[in-house]
Amino acid sequence: MTSSHLQGFFAGVGLTIVATSGLLSLSGFQGASLKIGSVDAAKAANDSIEAKRLDSELQKSVAARQGLLEFISTYPTISAADATRFRELSLKPTPTAADTAEIERLRNAVIAEEKKSRDLQTKASPTAVDLSAIEGYRARAVATRDLLGKWSQEFDAQLYGMRDKSRQDLVEKVRSVIAEVGKKGGYTVIYDSNAAPYSANDISDEVKKALDRR
């Protein structure tokens, strides 16, 4: 996953819930007579505070991984051990002050090492020791490219998994809220608005407000 690949993923990573047609709730509602309602479940979900929170968390996860890959790609002479530690610290959801300090120390050390590598490559008369060091840095860069390819695939899977789980959690919450609102309102049946677009009893606003209160 290159930086541009991640940017492409980021652009399409929103938690938009696709509308579903048909019956949403049917059992457990009590009423003296048939009472039919409708709800735009997709809009209620997508406009909710919960959707915005989940989307913000997902965007932070994308940005963290993008920043990590960009840094390592810029400084490929980083050692495998430092790269692994940098990843571990950079992807922590809530890094401590000590974590932040270690990230900064690692960042500075990696930048200094990269500068040393470039200085050696432009040295007019490199010694045998210099040439050996240059070869070592080249080997590191090759290993880093392989590592980036592996991590890119891992991040793809992680981010899509996070998105799918967030979507599913939101859908389940919306369905639960629809059931609560329907029961409270004495509805017998509630349809998605795609299946019943002209229903006089649209509870979309009630569902959205109830979802925001959770």
Summarize the topology:
Layout: H1 3-11, E1 23-25, E2 36-39, H2 41-46, H3 49-74, H4 80-90, H5 97-121, H6 128-184, E3 189-192, H7 204-213
Parallel strand pairs: 2-3
Antiparallel strand pairs: 1-3
Helix pairs in contact: 1-3, 3-4, 3-6, 4-5, 6-7
Describe this structure in words.
The protein has seven helices and three strands. The protein has 214 residues and is mainly alpha-helical. 22% of the residues are buried. The longest helix is centred in the C-terminal third of the chain and has 57 residues, at 128-184. Helix 3 (49-74) packs antiparallel against helix 4 (80-90).
Strand and helix order? HEEHHHHHEH
Rg is 26 Å
- Shape by Cα distribution: rod-shaped
Percent in strands: 5-15%
Q: Could you list some keywords that capture this structure?
A:
mainly alpha, 214 residues, disordered N terminus, single chain, rod-shaped, three-stranded mixed beta sheet, 67% helix
Question: Could you give a short description of this structure?
Answer:
The chain is mainly α and 214 residues long. Helices cover 67% and strands 5% of the residues. Strands 1-3-2 form a three-stranded mixed β-sheet.
